[in-house]
Amino acid sequence: MKRPFDPVTLRMFVAVCEERNIARAAEREAIVASAISKRIAAIEAELGVPLVKRGRRGIEPTAAGEVLLRQARDVLRTMERMHDELAEFASGVRGAVRVFASLSVLSEFLPDDVGAFLARHRTVRVSLEERVSSEIVRGVREGAVDFGVCWDATDLAGLATLAYRADRLCVALAPTHPLAGRRRLAFTDTLPYEQIEIQPGSMVQATLRRAAAMAGETLRHRIQVSTFDAACRTVAAGLGIAVVPREAAETYARARDLRLVPLTDAWATRRFVVCMRSRETLTAAARLLVDHLHRRAGAAPDLRVPRQGDKPPAPSP
Known about the structure:
The chain is an alpha/beta fold. The chain contains eleven helices and eleven strands. The protein has three domains: about 5-85, Winged helix-like DNA-binding domain superfamily/Winged helix DNA-binding domain (Arc Repressor Mutant, subunit A); about 95-165 and about 275-300, D-Maltodextrin-Binding Protein, domain 2, CATH 3.40.190; about 165-270, 3-Layer(aba) Sandwich (D-Maltodextrin-Binding Protein, domain 2), CATH 3.40.190.10.
């Protein structure tokens, strides 16, 4: 009969792979180095394959070790989450949900939707953390969070998704800018002008760079900021223009007398999704929240890209 892996051994193996040194791993785990060596030797003997090898950068996992490392991290994360969720019962909480979400959904509609959920489920705790799309997907795949909310243009291969909401990208302009009088714009119209980069590394910035490259141009970034409020302040100061979600920027734009001109590009209407490893892997509380967000999305108005021949929306006053 095969012996199951115990969590102490898994934690020590992860420490050795991360520290690349048994002595440092032993110090980290507060145990003698010989005990770690014996545990690793025991599981290698049980499996019949080497799990670690000495390389130029210290100890490295073998191909079999890489598999065990990935699985060990999943198991340890699951056990940590199990402990955290069970601990919540002592304070009256009956569920805890951790969510990674993009800046846009956190600035637009997710807080209100989660607030409505919590009003009905007062014993559930929800943690919302802002991340760029690549980090959201990685967190979901690795089991670091229950689910994520991001733009569906992200690589979501292997994940289950449910439709959420949508928004529209537009260009924020100072009222004196040469493009401020336009009723709509193609993104290529903005390329001769200096732009404000919002949240470097985000899916939006990757999309803008790709669109510029397809037009044979490069983006002219003058300033980098991390929030839509900072972007609108920078635009108002005359330091550039910014591509922002209309729904998130309207309040800031109104306060600073900015113009928000919609983009006509197909990617300018963004559709967001809830992504998860699978519905079956969700906790009961996470399933309740996912279903709630999906229902809220169904009640939201549909958005589409303005096309030639459409009556264009008026720019913000």
